[in-house]
């Protein structure tokens, strides 16, 4: 049984949480299903707006889906969250991703 199956079973059993949704988002990203990943990551952030790793992964998923404006917004929100928590490394990584996105696709593609 795959990790996605295991995590989906936990979700079906009513064990919804930001961490579980992040795990599902990450697993779907690895499987190449960026749409499912984005959905789970958005739900993770609805449960915990302060989850900087989820903001970063959401930005990546949206970029893969060609949704460059929303991806940039996710990175910007993630940077603000990470800086607010003192998570300098996460803020720096998202700033790099946002800069690349702006350079390649314009400020709000």
Characterise the protein shown here.
The protein is mainly alpha-helical and 109 residues long. The chain has one domain (3-105): Tetratricopeptide repeat domain (Serine Threonine Protein Phosphatase 5, Tetratricopeptide repeat, Alpha Horseshoe), CATH 1.25.40. It contains six helices and no strands. It has helices at 3-12, 18-31, 34-47, 52-64, 68-85, 88-105. The longest helix is centred in the last third of the chain and has 18 residues, at 68-85. It is globular, with a radius of gyration of 14 Å.
Helix-strand pattern: HHHHHH
Shape: globular
Architecture (CATH level 2) name: Alpha Horseshoe
Question: What integer value in Å does the Rg equal?
Answer: 14 Å
Q: Percent range for helical residues? A: over 70%
Provide the fold topology:
Layout: H1 3-12, H2 18-31, H3 34-47, H4 52-64, H5 68-85, H6 88-105
Descriptive labels:
80% helix, mainly alpha, 0% strand, Serine Threonine Protein Phosphatase 5, Tetratricopeptide repeat
Short description:
The chain is mostly helical and 109 residues long. It has one domain: Serine Threonine Protein Phosphatase 5, Tetratricopeptide repeat (Alpha Horseshoe).
């Amino acid at each position: 049984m795959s990790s996605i199956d295991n995590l989906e079973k936990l979700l079906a059993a009513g064990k919804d949480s930001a961490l579980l949704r992040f795990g599902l988002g990450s697993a779907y990203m690895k499987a190449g299903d960026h749409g499912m990943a984005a959905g789970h990551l958005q739900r993770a952030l609805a449960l915990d707006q302060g989850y900087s790793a989820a903001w970063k992964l959401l930005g990546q998923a949206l970029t893969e889906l060609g949704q460059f404006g929303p991806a940039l917004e996710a990175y910007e929100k993630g940077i603000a969250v990470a800086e607010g928590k003192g998570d300098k490394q996460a803020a720096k990584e998202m700033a790099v991703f946002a800069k690349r996105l702006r350079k390649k696709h314009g400020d709000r593609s």
